[in-house]
Amino acid sequence: MYEDLRKQSARDLTSLDFPGYAIGGLSVGEPKHLMYEVLDYTVPLLPTDKPRYLMGVGSPDALIEGAIRGVDMFDCVLPTRIARNGTTMTSQGRLVVRNAQYARDFGPLDPECDCYTCRNYSRAYLRHLIKSDETFGLRLTTYHNLHFLLNLMKKVRQAIMDDRLLDFRDEFFEQYGLFGNDKGF
Fold this sequence. Notes:
Elements: H1 3-14, E1 21-23, H2 32-42, E2 52-54, H3 60-68, E3 73-74, H4 78-83, E4 87-90, E5 93-96, H5 116-120, H6 123-131, H7 135-161, H8 165-176
Parallel strand pairs: 1-2, 2-3
Antiparallel strand pairs: 4-5
Helix pairs in contact: 3-7, 3-8, 6-7, 7-8
């Protein structure tokens, strides 16, 4: 979080002319507004013609906010880690399919999703698999979460090409229930 050290590091690393640049240490529990602040003063110091990679960040809100600030690549264990607990990302926000309310819910995880999991398995069945400690349930929720994030980034790229990324963020955050929420996931 030390602005002077981050700036010095960016200057030193860019002088070495690497093929791309990683930004790390921003997904270790600090509030997201601090991560965004660091990105605001770090990313502009990195070359625009080389990939800028934000390490360990993968919540939907952080992906969008990172893209707004000029980050090109992300990676994170979040979609698989939360899937192991029956938590999924949907167009309406987080859904914990292991919860009792889904025991007789025969709809897909996300009616707006066209992934293999949503096309073929109900919330009730996924809940049953997870509650029974069936590995298949974890694989299906992981597959869904990865599909969700890949699709989200496809939409982010389209919003960039359409010059409407800020509008896309606002629309997504409203639908996802993220306005005024610093947690994201």
